[in-house]
């Protein structure tokens, strides 16, 4: 990973010059368990995945494991689900990030604007979706909110005399984006709120004396101050959003067609529903490559914000 | 014209009202789930939705009859807490040496660790499944504990690292001069000072383990199945089971939700990942 | 006993040399002060002695034993940090006893030693408090107490007064001097403040750019600075410097022609100095006198004057644009722009060659 720019910011990096000297410091052997475990966790399954991706391996036809080269990759890339899957993944990650950052900043700013009655309770209510397991939130939204007959939204639509919408059937991706945003918005609000509390009050007061209104203060003081927390939100959420699975699994099963299939679900579909381990492995590798591309882009963009303190 | 005091009060009322409205909107699905769990199936499916009804416990009783809630909850609790402890055990030394004995590789290692989290689990599902199968670890708690430890390790290391970074290195050096071994330095000085941060790290790890639904659904069936699996078993209703589904969901989320509410202050303070100085 | 010998000590971070070869002896019961501008390596040197940094090359010996690679805990040294570095989660009493507890000292003995240190430092009423509840000065005393309790071979102080306010700093400075006498301990003290260095030290080590510029008693350093750096670093206000050229020089006297016009003969053994080579003349502010016109060696223009009550510091400019400070009686205050005539005793002058090294030993000790 390209992080050379980060290294120049290291505060102090004691080099063990004069190799024969016994180090007084416990250095790397303390880090090594974590590194070793993570390496194993990455390399062994990844190696197996690479191997599987190069052979024909379908659990429905055991014993036919001959080498097929890149055939699996070809099949996966030309699979009808691949393009929609890739685009849906991007759409899902992008829009949830956008929603949680934009609304996160706005709601956090609102909550921090002034003291009001019950702020503690409001905070508890706001954080709650973060504690709910993805399967449960997907089920609740599917059956209690989005359901075209008994869902809350249907009732509201009917109240205004409109025809209830079958959200998950008619706008599957949008609905899933909604559910996932609901889960991750609280996280953004909380981090941004904590960050706003740490904004220097003197700065704000100086700005106010200089004649800055609330909007100018927000734009010129608060937002720049939030660069780092926003980077953290984007980083953490991307990690989890790239592999959204349970929400799709429990609501739309990727359908209708491939309208709400993301790559994670597509691969799962090949592996566990069609038992095609070879092709699923090829897909897995492609997902890994895409995830790493995203990671590199992301770390390039915000890595500095993450590690410089 | 309003006086300064009046305009302050007006602002407070406006901000308060809109904040409460947003909070209510965001919390509504959870509230509705809890309400529905106390309805009869007929009330649950009624249109328009009923806000006032005769509460009943029949769903909860029925669930306990059909499936052993406590066995699932016990699995969730056991797997989450053991994985969290294990994770802390591996992460603390790593974070300690990264934070206080920074080398030229530290930042890169940290970012690399985070990047392993970006590998989609589906990418390695088959190998892990087959490894578990050949080791006889399918549907075992051990497999989930190991996997959860590993998938949370990068985030846990990172969080602890950011807490340790805030502790003046002087204090540790003082301990070293006072004759503390590395183990005593960590155990008697560093950990007590960082206990707030460690607590919120453990909290986050617990929440993530408790709610993890990919590996638990794919690697367990009954004996080791945690609450996520219990919920999933109610997810494809052969009829209209909204109330029972809500009850089982409430049961699955209640422990971590209550736990989260109690400790939310700590968690919020800790969730900044070093973003707040 | 505590005899510290440092030989050819070097330390580099990432290829940048911080300590560039230092030889130094600290004798038993000595109060040694490392002083120098920020970045001169004084704190690094202290940390090398403490064992908190790894030595790149060279050796450190304590009482004849090589401790260069020894773990800090085994060196039997105690350190007082600039930030005090108190354990925030422990009470004052626990802070004091932590080292002894770790060493497995018997409870009764620990208690006695803690009580003793608390008595010396007047910490008795604070033993149950947490560091957070203490004032800056109290924290400072706890940090010192933590060192006293261990009865170490050498006390190390890393700028211990720099976080205190001015009044407290003066008071604590006196207490430290008293403590040194009372404990009969060996102390090494790092500071950038020359007043602390002058008032506390038996031996001052002036560091600059990772090297020792001069070692000596405070008075030696003040009266016989080895080079321009030491001459300029010690003394407030700073010594004044005048550029000039050497004239005739022999074993007893040296002629100097200053750029600002004056010419004088100094009682210095400057035999090696070639006529015509550039030199710098140094005169301390208190060695200038303002005299009636025609009676002095130097004519200057007054700039700003700082009146302190007891004294007045006049900042003046010479004909060759050099700035000097002169100290005069408190009731005297020249107007800016006024021309003054200055006289100074050649016996109190310092002469430095083109490399900034002091020329020869001065023949007579200044008063």
Residues in helix, % of chain C: 10-25%
Greatest interface and its residue counts? A-B, 118 and 105 residues
If classified by CATH, what would the architecture of the largest domain in chain C be? 3-Layer(aba) Sandwich
Number of helices of chain B: 14
Spatial arrangement of strands, main beta sheet of chain C? 6-7-8-3-9-10
The residue ranges of chain C in which pLDDT falls below 50 over 5 or more consecutive positions are 362-367
Largest sheet of chain B: none
Describe the structure.
The complex is a heterotrimer of chains A (309), B (277) and C (367). Chain A is mainly alpha-helical and 309 residues long. Chain A has helices spanning 4-7, 28-53, 71-78, 82-113, 119-127, 134-145, 152-159, 167-170, 172-197, 201-209, 214-225, 227-241, 246-251, 263-273, 277-307. Chain A is globular and about 75 Å long. Mean pLDDT of chain A is 80; it is low at 1-24. Chain B is mainly α and 277 residues long. Chain B has a domain at 69-226 and 255-270: MetI-like (MetI-like fold, Orthogonal Bundle). The longest helix of chain B has 34 residues, at 4-37. Chain C folds into two domains: 4-231, P-loop containing nucleotide triphosphate hydrolases (Rossmann fold, 3-Layer(aba) Sandwich); 237-352, Nucleic acid-binding proteins (OB fold (Dihydrolipoamide Acetyltransferase, E2P)), CATH 2.40.50. Chain C is built from eight helices and 20 strands. Chain C has helices at 42-50, 92-103, 107-120, 136-150, 166-183, 194-200, 218-223, 228-233, and strands at 4-13, 16-26, 31-35, 57-62, 65-66, 77-80, 154-158, 186-191, 203-208, 211-216, 240-249, 254-258, 263-266, 278-283, 288-291, 298-307, 311-318, 323-329, 339-344, 350-352. In chain C, the strands form four sheets. A six-stranded mixed sheet of chain C has the order 6-7-8-3-9-10, with helices on both faces. In chain C, helix 2 packs across helix 3 (107-120), helix 2 (92-103) runs parallel beside helix 4 and helix 3 crosses helix 4. Chain C starts with a strand and ends in a 15-residue tail after the last strand. Chains A and B meet through helix 2, helix 4, helix 5, helix 6 and helix 7 of A and helix 1, helix 4, helix 5, helix 6 and helix 7 of B.
């Amino acid at each position: 990973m390209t992080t050379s720019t980060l290294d120049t910011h290291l505060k102090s990096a004691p080099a063990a010059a004069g190799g024969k000297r016994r180090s007084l410091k416990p250095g790397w052997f303390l880090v090594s368990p974590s590194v070793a475990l993570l390496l194993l966790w990455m390399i062994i399954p990844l190696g197996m995945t690479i191997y599987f991706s190069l052979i024909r391996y379908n659990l429905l036809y055991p014993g036919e494991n001959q080498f097929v080269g890149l055939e699996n990759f070809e099949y996966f890339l030309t699979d009808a689900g691949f393009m929609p899957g890739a685009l849906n993944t991007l759409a899902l990650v992008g829009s949830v990030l956008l929603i949680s950052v934009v609304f996160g900043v706005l709601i956090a700013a609102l909550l921090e604007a002034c003291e009001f009655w019950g702020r503690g309770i409001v905070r508890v209510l706001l954080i709650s979706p973060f504690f709910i397991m993805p399967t449960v939130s997907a089920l609740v939204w599917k059956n209690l909110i989005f359901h075209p007959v008994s869902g809350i939204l249907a009732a509201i639509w009917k109240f205004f005399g409109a025809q209830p919408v079958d959200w998950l059937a008619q706008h599957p991706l949008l609905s899933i984006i909604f559910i996932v945003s609901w889960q991750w918005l609280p996280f953004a609000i909380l981090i941004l709120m904590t960050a706003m509390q740490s904004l220097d009050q003197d700065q704000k007061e100086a700005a106010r004396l200089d004649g800055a209104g609330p909007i100018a203060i927000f734009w010129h003081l608060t937002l720049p101050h939030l660069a780092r927390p926003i980077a953290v939100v984007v980083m953490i959420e991307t990690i989890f959003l790239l592999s959204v699975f349970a929400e799709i699994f429990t609501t739309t099963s990727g359908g209708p067609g491939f309208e709400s299939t993301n790559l994670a679900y597509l691969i799962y579909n090949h592996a566990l529903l069609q038992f095609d381990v070879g092709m699923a492995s090829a897909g897995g590798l492609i997902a890994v490559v895409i995830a790493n591309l995203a990671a590199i882009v992301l770390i390039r963009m915000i890595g500095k914000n993450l590690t410089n303190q | 014209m309003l006086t300064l005091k009046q305009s302050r009060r007006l602002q407070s009322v406006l901000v308060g009202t809109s904040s409460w409205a947003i909070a209510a909107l965001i919390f509504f699905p959870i509230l509705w789930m809890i309400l529905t769990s106390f309805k009869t199936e007929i009330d649950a499916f009624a249109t328009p939705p009923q806000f006032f009804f005769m509460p009943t416990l029949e769903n909860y009783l029925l669930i306990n009859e059909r499936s052993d809630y406590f066995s699932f909850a016990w699995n969730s609790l056991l797997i989450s807490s053991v994985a969290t402890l294990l994770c802390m055990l591996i992460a603390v030394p790593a974070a300690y040496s990264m934070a206080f004995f920074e080398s030229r590789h530290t930042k890169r290692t940290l970012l690399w660790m985070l990047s392993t989290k970006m590998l989609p689990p589906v990418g390695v599902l088959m190998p892990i499944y087959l490894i578990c199968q050949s080791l006889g670890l399918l549907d075992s708690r051990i497999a989930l504990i190991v996997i959860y430890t590993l998938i949370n390790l990068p985030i846990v290391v990172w969080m602890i690292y950011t807490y340790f970074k805030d502790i003046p290195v002087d204090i540790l050096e003082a301990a070293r001069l006072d004759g503390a071994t590395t183990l005593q330095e960590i155990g008697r000085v560093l950990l007590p000072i960082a206990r707030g941060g460690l607590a919120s790290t453990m909290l986050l790890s617990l929440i993530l383990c408790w709610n993890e639904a990919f590996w638990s659904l794919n690697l367990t069936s009954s004996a080791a199945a945690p609450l996520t699996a219990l919920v999933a078993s109610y997810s494809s209703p052969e009829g209209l089971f909204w109330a029972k589904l809500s009850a089982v969901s409430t049961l699955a989320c209640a422990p971590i939700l209550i736990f989260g509410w109690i400790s939310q202050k700590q968690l919020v303070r800790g969730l900044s990942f070093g973003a707040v100085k | 006993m505590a005899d510290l010998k440092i030989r050819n000590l070097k330390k580099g971070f990432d290829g940048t040399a911080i300590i560039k070869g230092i030889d130094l002896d600290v004798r038993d019961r000595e109060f040694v002060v490392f002083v120098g501008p920020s970045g001169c390596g004084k704190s690094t040197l202290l940390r090398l002695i403490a064992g908190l940094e790894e030595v790149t090359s060279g050796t450190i010996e304590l009482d004849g034993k090589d401790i260069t690679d020894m773990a800090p805990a085994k060196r039997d040294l105690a350190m007082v940090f600039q930030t005090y570095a108190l354990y925030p989660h422990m009470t004052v009493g626990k802070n004091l006893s932590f080292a002894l507890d770790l060493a497995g000292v018997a409870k009764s003995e620990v208690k006695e030693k803690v009580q003793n240190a608390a008595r010396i430092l007047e910490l008795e009423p604070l033993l149950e408090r947490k560091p957070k509840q203490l004032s800056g000065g109290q924290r400072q005393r706890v940090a010192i107490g933590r060192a006293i309790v261990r009865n170490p071979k050498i006390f190390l102080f890393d700028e211990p007064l720099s976080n205190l306010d001015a009044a407290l700093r003066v008071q604590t400075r006196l207490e430290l001097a008293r403590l040194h006498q009372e404990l009969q301990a060996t102390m090494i003290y790092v500071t950038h403040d020359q007043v602390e260095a002058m008032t506390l030290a038996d031996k001052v080590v002036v560091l600059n750019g990772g090297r020792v510029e001069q070692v000596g008693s405070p008075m030696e350093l003040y009266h016989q600075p080895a080079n321009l750096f030491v001459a300029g670093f010690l003394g407030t206000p700073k010594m004044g410097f005048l550029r000039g050229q050497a004239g005739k020089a022999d074993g007893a006297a040296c002629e100097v022609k200053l750029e600002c016009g004056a010419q004088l003969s100094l009682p210095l053994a400057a035999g090696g100095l070639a006529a015509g080579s550039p030199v710098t003349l140094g005169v301390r502010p208190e060695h200038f006198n303002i005299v009636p016109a025609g009676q002095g060696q130097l004519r200057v223009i007054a700039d700003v004057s700082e009146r302190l009550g007891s004294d007045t510091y006049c900042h003046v400019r010479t004909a060759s644009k050099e700035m000097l400070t002169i100290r005069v009686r408190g009731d005297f205050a020249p107007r800016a722009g006024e021309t003054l005539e200055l006289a100074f005793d050649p016996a109190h002058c310092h002469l430095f060659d083109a490399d900034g090294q002091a020329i020869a030993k001065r023949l007579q000790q200044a008063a």
